[in-house]
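Exercise 3.2. Students should predict the tertiary structure of the chain below and write it as structure tokens, then compare their answer with the key that follows.

Predict this chain's 3D structure.
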Amino acid sequence: MARELTFKLAGSDYSAAPVKLERKKIYGWTSIVATDRAGDVCNSVYLSPDDSLIIPSGGLKQATVDSNGRWVEKSELTAYSADGTEALPVVPSSFDAPIELSAKATPEEFLDNDWESVYQLENPDLAKAVGNDIYRFEFSYRGGTNHNDGYLMNTPSGLFLFAGDKQEFPLVSLAEETTIDDNEPVEEEASIDELDFSMF
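Answer key:
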């Protein structure tokens, strides 16, 4: 059974399972299948650096090790800010506790985001409660240090959850108008007769 998010709005709880929208689900996709002369599907493999081993697909994995070469689990790592001065806060998954819908966002605030994921939610009662408002909240699918701003919005096509980060978009405007001062003296071009060809 798909995991469900729980939203609290106006004293009521609403649950819905988010379905991620992906480009291939909307537009479809194609794939290229390589076959041998007998028509059997070929599988991808890797060669070791010395070309002595054939490693099947899935036989390689990235790992993190310490200075002694000991395997380190991700749960043992601590993420720090870019300048390395402080540890990043760890937030729980949004599936672990109800999401309080109390902060409303304007359409301008909604549009000033770079969207990472979009989810469709099926809950007519929640859609009716949201109405024409846009609600903003902190959203983290898996928990940890990675989290986004979540926006819940009802549209004619259904109820959607947008997850992204606010961006500072530069203002683009028309060039400023300038005037040409006709009173400035214009330098006359030197005539051909005045050129000294001995300079060339």
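Discussion points: Helices lie at 23-27, 107-111, 124-130. The CA atoms of residues 120 and 158 lie 7 Å apart.
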